DNA sequence: CCTTAAATAGTAATGATTACTATTACCGTT
DNA sequence: AACGGTAATAGTAATCATTACTATTTAAGG
């Protein structure tokens, strides 16, 4: 993998963001530094970086792809008022899923939990 | 809401299916009964029927919309070998999410859990 | 400073879903 | 049984996120 100014900028944007940006959000932020950067380049590099485990790509049900600097396993909560995506770092969830795996005699290797409601700010 | 042959056929197909069909799957099955039924009609009626609570529309992360005759809250497991979508009727999950709601002082109103792995048949 | 392949910009294609519009058909009223 | 209003439909176009394609640019090793 060669160096590229584009990839550096894209990585820095994700590492500096805490709002779980979409590819389009990264694209718009990147354009402020490289005015003619291509959306395809943003997608390719976001996918590349997440394949390498440097950033994390995730999806919330009913939503589009998002990217996160936090690579460790965690879930996401979406506030229906402000639209914010909030990290839920919940280890007990993974324990719970393991139990479920035994009960249902299906071998659960991976899970995605999307939570919806109202965040503490908006209540 | 008026009667329509199309809606009757579409509803019957979902009620007779246990494979969590997509709109396109319902469309292809419906065409065997009404050869010129429109895909738009299928989408509109599937959405209409799920708004009425007669069927259930759901999504698995990374997958497209699916429809289910089972309307009560439950989660879904996807086998990566055979591709089957299997219902997980797990009450304890909902209790767990309620607890999580308290811990995180976010008001969790709804959740979607997608489980991935290998089913009992394919192991 | 050359060369070569990786990376890019710009554009086209894809696929699921929704929107649009002229036509059809359900159904209550005569 | 015919009529008229309007909901529902068929067929097609539009949308939007994402991927694919291709000619051009650029990193970096010799």
Keywords:
homodimer; 123 residues; alpha+beta; Arc Repressor Mutant, subunit A; Dna Ligase, domain 1; 2 domains; 3-stranded mixed β-sheet; two-stranded antiparallel sheet; 4 helices; DNA-binding
Describe it for me?
The structure is a homodimer of 123-residue chains. With 123 residues, chain A is α+β, with helices and mostly antiparallel strands. Chain A folds into two domains: 64 residues, Orthogonal Bundle (Arc Repressor Mutant, subunit A), CATH 1.10.10.10; 43 residues, Dna Ligase, domain 1 (2-Layer Sandwich). In chain A, 38% of the residues lie in helices and 24% in strands. The first copy, chain A, has a three-stranded mixed β-sheet with strand order 4-3-5, covered by helices on one side. The first copy, chain A, has a two-stranded antiparallel sheet with strand order 1-2. In chain A, strand 1 and strand 2 form a beta hairpin. In chain A, helix 1 packs across helix 2 and helix 1 crosses helix 3. The longest helix of chain A has 13 residues. The structure holds a DNA duplex (30 and 30 nucleotides).
């Amino acid at each position: 993998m060669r160096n590229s100014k584009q990839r550096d900028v894209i990585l820095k944007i994700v590492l500096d963001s805490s709002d779980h940006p979409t590819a389009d959000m990264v694209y718009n932020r990147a354009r402020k530094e490289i005015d003619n950067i291509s959306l395809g380049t943003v997608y390719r590099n976001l996918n590349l970086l997440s394949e390498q485990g440097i950033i994390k790509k995730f999806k919330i049900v009913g939503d589009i792809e998002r990217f996160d600097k936090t690579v460790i396993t965690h879930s996401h909560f979406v506030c229906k008022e402000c639209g914010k995506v909030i990290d839920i770092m919940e280890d007990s969830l993974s324990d719970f899923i393991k139990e479920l795996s035994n009960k249902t005699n299906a071998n659960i290797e991976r899970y995605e939990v999307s939570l919806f409601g109202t965040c503490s700010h908006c209540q």
